[in-house]
Amino acid sequence: MKNQNYTATISVNETPKEVFAAINNVRGWWSQEIEGRTDKLGAEFNYRYEDVHRCKIKITAFEPSKKVVWHVLENYFDFTKDKSEWKNTDIVFEIAEKGNKTEVHFTHVGLVPAYECYSVCSDAWGSYIKNSLRDLITKGKGQPNEKK
C-alpha cells in the first residue's frame, strides 16, 4: 500500500508572489515562537510549542512564487513514544496559478497514518494551512501560536 503523506490545498485570489511572501512569514501564520530566518534558501529556524513540540528546520528549496521546502533536521514530541517522528521529513509548499486563482498545495512528506502523531499533527496542519495561512494571505492576519 502506498504511503499517504498528509496534504492540504487552499485556493485564494491573491497572486503567487503574495502567497509566497505569506508562506515565508512563518511567524504570521504558524508560531510567533520561531527563532531564525524563514525567508532564505539554506536558512535554519527553530519551532517551539510549549514543552509539547519543538523542531529544527532547514529551508532546502526556495523558488520565488513557486515552491518552498523545509527539511526537518531535529524533532521532539512529548506525547509520542518515538520523540523524533518528524525527523528527516519534508514540508512542501507548491504554488500554482489555477485560472484566476492561486493554489497552495501543502504536503508533509513522511507524515503518514502509521505515525503515532498523525491524527494530532494532521489536525494541526489542517488548521494552520486552511485557516491561519489562508487568513494571512487573504486578510493580512493569521492565527499563529502566540509568544509566551
Give structural attributes.
Alpha-D-Glucose-1,6-Bisphosphate, Chain A, domain 4; 37% strand
What does this entry look like structurally?
It is a single chain. This protein has 148 residues and is α+β, with helices and mostly antiparallel strands. The protein has one domain: START domain (Alpha-D-Glucose-1,6-Bisphosphate, Chain A, domain 4, 2-Layer Sandwich). Helix content is 24%, strand content 37%. The protein has helices at 16-24, 26-29, 118-139, and strands at 6-12, 35-36, 44-49, 53-63, 67-77, 90-98, 101-109. The chain has a seven-stranded antiparallel β-sheet. Strand 3 and strand 4 form a beta hairpin. The longest helix has 22 residues, at 118-139. The chain is globular and about 45 Å long. The termini are far apart.
Short description:
The chain is an alpha+beta fold and 148 residues long. It contains three helices and seven strands.
Helical proportion? Answer: 10-25%
CATH homology group:
START domain
Secondary-structure element string = EHHEEEEEEH
Unreliable runs: none
Supply the CATH architecture: 2-Layer Sandwich
The N- and C-terminal alpha carbons lie at a distance of 42 Å
Number of domains: 1
* Mean pLDDT rating: 95
CATH topology: Alpha-D-Glucose-1,6-Bisphosphate, Chain A, domain 4
